[in-house]
Design a protein that fits this description.
Number of domains: 2
Number of helices: 13
Amino acid sequence: MKLKDIIGGISRSESVKDIYISLFSILLALIIGALLIFLIGSSPLQAFTVMLDGAFGSISNIANTLSKTIPLIFTGLAVAVAFRCGLFNIGAEGQLYLGAFFSVLTALKFSFLPAFLLLPVAILGGIISGMIWGGIPGFFKAQFGTHEVVVTVMMNYIGINITSYLVNYPFKAEGWVAQTDIIPNAANLPKLIPKTQLSAGLIVAIIAALAVYFLLWKTDFGYEIRAVGENPTTAESGGINIKKNISLAMAISGGLAALAGVTQSLGVYERFIDGFSPGYGFTGIAVAVLGRNHPLGVILTALLFGALETGALKMDRVTEISNDLVIVIQGLVILFVAAPEIIRSILKRRESQ
């Protein structure tokens, strides 16, 4: 039997079980959340009804939910691509900050370009910066066996602080807020719904998810990435270049994470703002794990997390329940899903060594 058939058989056999695990984890987290609401003397039914209305009760609420979903799709895809290659990219936060900053810097420095070129060039500038930042730990992993978790965590701090320095000093706009100048109108991602934060970044995110699916499951390169993730020893025996795939997978992962920052800066803030991310890169880890590292699962999970976050704002206003409950629910989901997945990956890696 060919290695390709083995990888495909493993993926099909695990996919159904993974879906059930994810659904059960969400249900269990919501049940425990409802129990916590009941214990503090509030009505779980009222709380979840208000939360649902806050997320989907109007066009404006839906737009806000989808807007919060966009960066999570990108960071979830970034982590998923790395996971498929057997790697843990914990550096999406730093990569998205660099992507956000350099997309804005590109838009400002190349403002002389024609309108139809400026936006694509600005997006490309952000993607390239993220690919470089993600490719560095991939290179060290491939060439020297340096653990990518350690390197990506360290590079988070470096990347975030580099952008913080740049926006506080050489590229700071006038005023007390640490932010750049506003980008030209031609570099803005168009709004899908006027007077909301929902931009064409949603379309970019869906295209990115389709591209990741096509790459991983419809190309030889994607098959090699998944083969390395399943069993690097067997993959190498089958003639697959392990080092090349590790380096490229991490670079692609970094580029996807950068798009989370790009779409926020070009589509929401229209500039780079220091500390703009509430932790999209880290939430993307949970999105990828709950979505079973599949593009469709990532989209659905990102939508769930976006709805929870948006709905929690109304729940906090209308009821006596803090929106911190959403953080508890997300944490429970991560606990129920991520722990077994990480343990299984570690055991698989040890078996392959």
